[in-house]
Amino acid sequence: MSQTAALPTPVHPPLPVAIPLRQLLPWAAFGLLLAALVIYFVGAEQGAISIFSGTFVHEFTHDGRHLLAFPCH
Question: Between vectors from CA 57 to CA 51 and to CA 32, what angle results, nearest 5°?
């Protein structure tokens, strides 16, 4: 029988992976659309431009309005 010893390999930190803009752009567009939708429902879903009638959306997002400093009263 022969004995072999493995040489220790140097430890290198992992290199960052470059993400192509072509793959990042759809996620950025989705994030912006989602942010705009959230801002609309929290900040503007009441009054003349409301999509839903009644006060359900207003009451559902009421605390978020105050947290984000939107006036609602």
Answer: 70
